[in-house]
Amino acid sequence: MNAPESVSRTQQRTSNTHVTVAPKDTVGALDPSMPQVASTPYLVTIAEVACARLVQDQLEPGQITVGTRVVIDHLGASKVGAELVVKAALMNREKNRFRFSVEIEDGPRLVAKVEHERAAVSLEKIMKALG
Hints:
Layout (H helix, E strand, L loop, with lengths): L12 E8 L6 H4 L9 H16 L7 E12 L8 E12 L2 E10 L2 E14 H8 L1
Antiparallel strand pairs: 1-3, 2-5, 3-4, 4-5
């Protein structure tokens, strides 16, 4: 594999992804009695996607990454139309395991902090296992 087995702080990979909160992304879409603000599952999803994209070029042909762990602190609400900035950083890599730190901002406000881990796996093996 061309990628190093571990990533030090001097080799840290980062990305900034911009997303806009849509009505379908809100807790109110899941439960009409709740406000139309970005749901926690939505914040997890955008963090996962940003992390997967960050290491996509480090994978072997036929591999994808799958989420294996998420810890989130949802710190503030974001309304429909808000532009969120997802700041993902690869903290380290050990063989096929990747560990990330993610911050999600709504303008000047930090609305979520996420610790995330992903594993590189064979897409073919996953599809065969699913039948």
